[in-house]
Amino acid sequence: MEWVDTHLWTIPLMPLLGVLVHIFLGGTLGKKLVGILACLLVFISFGLSVVVLLRLLELPAEERHLLDNFLPWIRVGAFSADWAFRADTLSAVMLLVVTGVGFLIHVYSTGYMHDDPKYIRFFAYLNLFTFSMLVLVLASNVFLMFIGWEGVGLCSYLLIGFWFHDLNNATAGMKAFIVNRVGDWSFLCGVLLLFWSLGKYTGTYTVDFYEINRLAPELPAGIALAVGLLLFGGAAGKSAQIPLYVWLPDAMAGPTPVSALIHAATMVTAGVYMIARFSGLYLSAPDAMMVVATVGALTALFSATIALAQNDIKKVLAYSTVSQLGYMFLGVGVGAFSAGIFHLMTHAFFKGLLFLGAGSVIHGLHGEQDLRRMGALKSKMPWTWLTFMAAWLAIAGFPGLSGFFSKDEILWQAFSSEHGHWALWLVGFIAAGLTAFYMTRLVVMTFYGESRWPEHAHPHESPRNMTVPLAVLAVLCVIGGYVGVPAILHGANYFEHWMEPAVTWAAGHGGAEAAEHAAELGSHGLEALLMAASVGVALLGIGIGWWMYSRRRDIPEAAFQRWPNLYRWVLNKYYVDELYQWLVVDNLLRLTRLSGRFDLAVIDGAVNGSAWLTERVSAISGWIDNTFVDGAVNGVAEVTRAAGGRLRLIQTGRVQQYLTFAAAMVAIGVAGIILWPSIQPWLAELWSGAI
Amino acid sequence: MTPFQLVKPEELAYLLPELILVGTLIWSLLLELILRPRQSRFPVAGFTLLGLLAAAVADLRLLGEPARTLFSGMIVRDDFAIIFQLLAAFAAGLVVFASIWTREVSDQPTAGQGEYYLLILGATIGMFFLVAAQNLLMLYLSMELLSLPSYLLVAWPKRSRPATEAGIKYVVYGAGASCAMIYGISLLYGLSGSLELHDLNAYVAGLSDQTALPVATFLVALLLTLAGFLFKIAAFPLFQWAPDVYQGAPTPITAFLAVGSKAAGMGALLRFLYLGLCVRGSADLFTALGGLHWPMLIAVISALTMTAGNLIALAQTNAKRLLAYSSIAHAGYILMGIPLLSVAGLTAVIFYLAVYLVMNLGAFLSVIMLENQGLPPEIKNYRGLGARSPAIAIAFSVFLFSLTGIPPLGGFIGKFYLFAALIQGRLYWLAVVGVLNSVVSLYYYANIVRRMFLEKPLDETPVPASPMLRGLLAVLALITLALGLYWIPLYQLVEFAASTLGL
User: Fold this and answer.
1) pLDDT value at A648 more than 60
2) At residue A289, does pLDDT exceed 80?
């Protein structure tokens, strides 16, 4: 298995091969083969990722990282940024999630996209996305990560606007792209500032993550804070946090498998991954971590409230994704990097499954996405229902399922970690209750109650290639959490120990310290209490949701009647989009018009003027050339270069002039050299006199 | 004492690339005699290409071996020479290949089409020896060996008045420059008592102890010798021949002069300056000997060359003439790396030459392809080319943008290394001049692109092109792009070659 040490590049190579084959041979191969090949290549990547995992397990814990520097790229002096991939315990988890869940979603897509005329292009994009995401997670340096980062952004844009014939979809794609640009700008500024300041304060110009984390404590606090905040700006764009979350709900315009893969399971978690990658840097900027945690917690709560009132099944899930991403940021923001990544993993399982299930429902109802026209689908779509149940309980935090363990870990850390605060816990706690509530609402409105779909709809269960991935994900939702059972439940928390070398090692202070801190707080008792509280709030949310939406539909109705303004606010997502439109977009357009006018009046004038000026200058220099040359030979100044005609005539006299010019210049040079010793003192005197 | 023996048989093995070229020349000559005049074009050209390829392979096999002085110090076979010989072979090969399908060449009624390729081969042999010469006499002779066939090639279309005019101008101007150079060399010989660069070096090292008179004489000799080099690379103040000659010559020959000749001249200049006037210190830096300030002189020449080239280029309406001024400007950019006296500067110079070779050949090839289809190289004829022949227009734009130095193309990386070396060497004013010049150059390069894509075509008929040239154009464009994305192998090769100079 040592083979893999120097062959990490084969993992992203597979989907890249897929892209090339689909683009150049797709038409010849036909849909069926393209679909099979796309899935197969991602599966091979998954297999290779498993090999990486096994290889890492062979090694002792503190040596668990493989560095494969396979292609030199940029080398300037002592600085180098190469195509180098690193597999450590953190990227191994990401690898398995990206290729594993990615593979399942590829398989699902062969069913979901079956009748789409752009089937081949879809798989080319999907494979390109997988390639970029693998580059992002495997990158050993910031530059390389940035390539993957931009690559996934591009694929996201292409896939959101995949059905671009509808203007709304194209607009949603553009919105995602532009909002991400804001984040990417911040990210790039952060990277550049980091690069510059490392060189200035530590003397080492490096872009390697391990080096950066090692050197970060030597940076001045202010710079570390600025870098941390700028990088988090990038993360907030990619991972849809306040204030840049607005693109993600719109991104649901893309095909549902895309929503599952890119906008739930993998790409949107890249920001969390990036922060975990920079764990050492963030630990030396505690204030930046505070901001990360606060923004994460607020996003979790804020978008959970929006999800309460949405009627589009994918919109509910989208806001739920934003909310869950908030949890992850809460986790990494309080220094619980492994808990954040743990939640990232379980979230990939259950949110991927929820989206695929929703896709199955949409597929069965021939494109219907409105919850108000669903209901009673349990018997019509048994597999979808059964698997959806697992994902629902997992996200709601039902004890024993994957989401319970990861969310509870984050909440406990938010409360107990040295970077945590009880207020952060409280916000997360309330959001957890809301999550349970709106997910229950969604489940009841989709699968239970009376059927509200039209007579002729004839909902049907989806084909096998869609239900099997659902089943696999459902199993993962149920058992996926058991790798991280906390000590209080007599678990060994394998996940945290697994992640230690990548995040805590990089951070420089080990798990022991954190454990001590927890011990100070005291306390298994407290932890048990908080856990009981979050189980309680989850069950409460589920219970109320179930009761309200299956028995007492009149209560929400009455609430809407009673507080119509509040309802409208929530339904319209607090008018944030409108605010941005008014505040940013309109002003930008106004600025565009203004600068257009400015351009016409001033810039064009200046450009024309400078063009005129340069032409004059060159004409003059041509004239000087001619005058000087001619003068030297004949004492006659006759033609200017602008006359131009001389080029076509045989004028052997010219070449004599050229030579005379050259000879004159050489002579001036010779004279200068010979006279230099006598001129120099005089010049020096003149110079000092002038000063 | 061993008897004096000029040629030792075992040394011939290290002369294999040159010997291959000479052999090819002789056999091509025979081929030319055997075949009927109108038939000889393809066989001779093909044979020439094979010979160039074989010489390049022979060169590659010698790469990485320790430097070896041959024939009592006449020439040296080191990696520095090999790199430049490879560049020369590459340029010559491409020019030969392009010439086969160039109407301007193939449609000439001249008997004996093969002669053309023989002359290119002869000039290439000159370049091979020029970059390896370690003796001033050898250097001068190789430069003549390069120049004489070049004069003939420029005037090769015998019935074309512009070509004949260009040929005459070139030969007269060249003779002048050559005179200056040989005069300078004779003075150097008189001063140092030897023609070998090593002896010159020893003499220069002792200069600081001398009185003012020999120093002044030496400087005069140096300046006159430099004139020969400046002529070859078309730098200030010996650049005025270039536009006239470039415009009149058949376009493949223009490309050959602008790229091959310039690269070889630059190689010889580097060797002359770095081996003759410098000593290699530690930390990859050179020191100018004898307290002479020639680096500043080169820096000033560099600034003047690029400024003159760029400013005059602004007003040009003919594409070949514009590219001529552009090549003058590029000689200026390339010279920027020389006064730094560091391996970084040296590497940047050679790297830029390699990139320049590809992109400039590509630009000339675009002009050739359009000329083949009856579009004379007046820029106004390129109006709306984007619609008529998108492939050529796109490739041409790639070369032009690369010449400007816009990422992600090779020209950007080349300029990046040059400017990085300048900053490292603290020659800030020259870097500023270089950057300003690059900005100016955008105006005239982008002007061609603007005409091709933003203006309406004169007529809508598509411009066809021969598939061979089309393929070559695509390859050059891809290399230009590839060098902007992944240049490290080339850079490391060049750095390796540069770091062995003067050791």
Assistant:
1) no
2) yes
The domain limits of chain B are 296-503
> A665 to chain B: which residues are within 8 Å by CB?
236-237
Query: Regarding predicted confidence, which is higher, A19 or A571?
Result: A19
In B, which residues are within 8 Å of A681 by CB distance?
A: none
Q: Are B225 and B185 in contact (CB under 8 A)?
A: yes
Structural domain spans, chain A: 1-140, 161-572, 652-690
DSSP string for A75-87:
EETTEEEEEEEEE
Pairing, β B68-70 against β B75-77: antiparallel
Q: Which residue has the higher pLDDT, A58 or A456?
A: A58
Q: Tokens standing for A474?
A: 């459902």
Q: Report residue A552: phi and psi, to 5°.
A: -115, 65
Among candidates A298, A303, A353, A305, which has minimal Cα distance to A329? A298
Closest partner residue to A666 among B165, B224, B308, by Cβ? B224
DSSP string computed for A105-159: HHHHHHHHTTT-TTHHHHHHHHHHHHHHHHHHHHBSBHHHHHHHHHHHHHHHHHH
pLDDT tens column, B171-196: 988 998 999 999 999 999 988 888 88
**pLDDT tens, A457-500?**
778 888 888 889 999 999 999 888 888 887 777 777 788 888 87
Of A145, A19, A5, residue with least CA distance to A70: A5
Q: Would you say A419 and A286 are in contact if contact means Cβ atoms under 8 Å apart?
A: yes
Chain A residues with CB under 8 Å of B308 CB are 621
Query: What is the Rg, in whole angstroms, of the alpha carbon atoms belonging to chain B?
Result: 22
The distance of A652 to chain B (nearest Cα, Å) reads 7
pLDDT of residue B210: 60
The residues of A whose Cβ lies within 8 A of any Cβ of B are 71-77, 611, 614-615, 617-619, 621-622, 625, 641-642, 647-648, 650-652, 654-656, 658-659, 661-663, 665-666, 669-670, 673-674, 677
- The H or E element containing residue A70 is strand A65-76
**DSSP assignments along A610-657, one per residue:** HHHHHHHHHHHHHHHHHHHHHHHHTS-----GGG-GGGGS--HHHHHH
Cis preceding linkage at A15, omega within 30: no
Question: Identity (one letter) of the amino acid at B149?
Answer: P
Residues B68-77 have pLDDT tens digits of: 888 878 888 8
Give the tokens for residue A579.
Answer: 């605010």
Q: Are B463 and B392 in contact (CB under 8 A)?
A: yes
CA distance B93 to B49: 6
Mean pLDDT (whole number) for A278-287: 89
The conformation of residue A582, written as its DSSP 8-state character, comes to I
Tokens 């952004």 label which residue?
A153
Split at pLDDT 50, 70, 90, the class of A250 is confident
CA–CA gap between residue B396 and residue B216 (Å, rounded): 48
Q: With a threshold of 0.90, does the pTM exceed it?
A: no
What count of other Cβ atoms lies within 10 Å of the Cβ of residue B69?
A: 17
Written as one letter, the residue type at A518 is: A
Quick one: pLDDT at residue A638? 38
Q: Say if residue A643's pLDDT is above 50.
A: no
Could you tell me the CA-to-CA distances from A517 to A196, A421, A426, A429, A433 in Å, in that order?
A: 35, 13, 20, 22, 28
Q: Which helix (H) or strand (E) holds A480?
A: none
Through-space distance between the first and last CA atoms of chain B, rounded to whole angstroms: 27
Cα atoms found within 13 Å of the Cα of residue A600, Cβ hemisphere only: 5
Give the C-alpha separation, B382 to B371, whole Å: 11
pLDDT of residue B289 exceeding 70: yes
ipTM: 0.73
pLDDT, tens only, A523-569 = 677 888 888 888 888 899 888 888 888 887 777 777 778 878 877 77
* Structure-token match 């779909």, residue found: A453
